[in-house]
## 1
Amino acid sequence: EDQVTQSPEALRLQEGESSSLNCSYTVSGLRGLFWYRQDPGKGPEFLFTLYSAGEEKEKERLKATLTKKESFLHITAPKPEDSATYLCAVQATGGFKTIFGAGTRLFVKA
Amino acid sequence: DAGVTQSPTHLIKTRGQHVTLRCSPISGHKSVSWYQQVLGQGPQFIFQYYEKEERGRGNFPDRFSARQFPNYSSELNVNALLLGDSALYLCASRRTSGREDTQYFGPGTRLTVL
């Protein structure tokens, strides 16, 4: 069964303290892995799509990487405005559904 | 360009009632997906529609139904509401091109069932 597990559930950082969020996945064949940011009470905001192992993508202080079993979202020198829930999702080859993890809640303190 | 729009923003219903939620995708996108997100969890897939045809359904009871109109907007209907149906309902507009399949979410409809 296709599955996505994110860790940690919550992460508290000081402003400027870099860290990584983990997304472990099990899927029959990976079509794409997605990262989203979600603020409280709002819809998820698209960040990245990764398609194959070894691929990396960057956007401002965020960098996403992909291996055959997991993906990391690296946050460099975070700011308080980076505080949000970060969601990871996968889509299987030939499938129609996108499976989301439970998310990592990030808190960045000034 | 306008993003994905959903209406209403908030809705309060009582058990046993029926609800209809609406979604308009990004212009040019022909596919829409619906998700249910319970507090503290990730979104759970309900339906995908493409060119007015149902392409996929998640593990939800038959009380949940949807349709897509010729202008690609969509409705999600839930009958015989239960307390457990209280959640944020998200609509996603999908852009598919080659191997790319990216979803852009709307702001959601917060449904409370009393």
## 2
Amino acid sequence: EPEVTQTPSHQVTQMGQEVILRCVPISNHLYFYWYRQILGQKVEFLVSFYNNEISEKSEIFDDQFSVERPDGSNFTLKIRSTKLEDSAMYFCASRGAGAYNEQFFGPGTRLTVL
Amino acid sequence: GEDVEQSLFLSVREGDSSVINCTYTDSSSTYLYWYKQEPGAGLQLLTYIFSNMDMKQDQRLTVLLNKKDKHLSLRIADTQTGDSAIYFCAARRENYQLIWGAGTKLIIKP
């Protein structure tokens, strides 16, 4: 069964460093998402991406964040200068086109900023 | 803004039924979802219901939707230890974004 994969599963970084979180969506999916979940809090929408551009972004997704689909298979989330409060679980999701299309989630990347 | 609320904990005895409740505010939500998250794992879609339905059953899972009250519930029959997890309710907005509840931790007592 096709699935969304994410790497790494856990990333530890120093405050101020850049991180890139990687996702491989399901191959025929067209819409891509990043969500984050700070420990003990709700899952929050960050950004949606379609046709090589951002469709929507939340207020969390500021200038420190960027997304890219560099090669037609990977979908990346970059945080330019990490802050302590960026520590969270980051989930990638993808969905296909069609009237009903659920989002399939990856297993998440746990980001720890020290 | 839109919100989804659920209680944080539910404790049940093994073999009993678990009922996890959720309320949402966005009346235009077309799909409502239940996701399961086991410790250290990702978000697994358990089931969903379309807003024009009031009930959906899938093996041990029953979803009830009261659209008038914007209330959703997930019933797990014959709860097993493997059902221990956090259960998230999520409402899909018209733009396909998911609005999430805080999750209900299901604790199974032997």
## 3
Amino acid sequence: AQSVTQLGSHVSVSEGALVLLRCNYSSSVPPYLFWYVQYPNQGLQLLLKYTSAATLVKGINGFEAEFKKSETSFHLTKPSAHMSDAAEYFCAVSALNSGGSNYKLTFGKGTLLTVNP
Amino acid sequence: ETGVTQTPRHLVMGMTNKKSLKCEQHLGHNAMYWYKQSAKKPLELMFVYNFKEQTENNSVPSRFSPECPNSSHLFLHLHTLQPEDSALYLCASSQGLGLGGYTFGSGTRLTVV
């Protein structure tokens, strides 16, 4: 079974500082990994995805994530935080369901990012 | 309209009421999903439909009844809910097997009183 662990339910950074949100996964097969962002009173928006191509994945809004198989990690980074980055971020791993008809996403518990002026 | 649209955005219902949540996708996707998002809990997958056939039911109580009349529309019928069912209900859709990720709607905030 696949699972995702997000380290730190709340991360606080200053505007302009590095953003690092941690995600570790467990998967019995090569994983497909995703980061989603959720702004208040909104649904989830796809930031980026890893699907076994390049290990460094670039997404929207200046975010990127690096797949490290040896560490079973897929941490999300952004060099310089902006006030508009304040939101909740979810890491997810994709696995084929038992019937083989769909890949279903299993989400971590989320990390709330606060950006201080 | 584009993307995934959910209505209503907010719903307050009594425990004896019957209501329905609606989801519509304008992306030509073949799969649709219902997720429940409660405070301090991971997103919970409830139901999966692929080409309007249910392919997954994650042991959801029968007071939640999904309906998928076609690949573009998904409903969640609610009856005799409990206060612990209060949550944000998210609908999503995907193309093919869903490897490219899902597109989510903005959700329905449900409060059971």
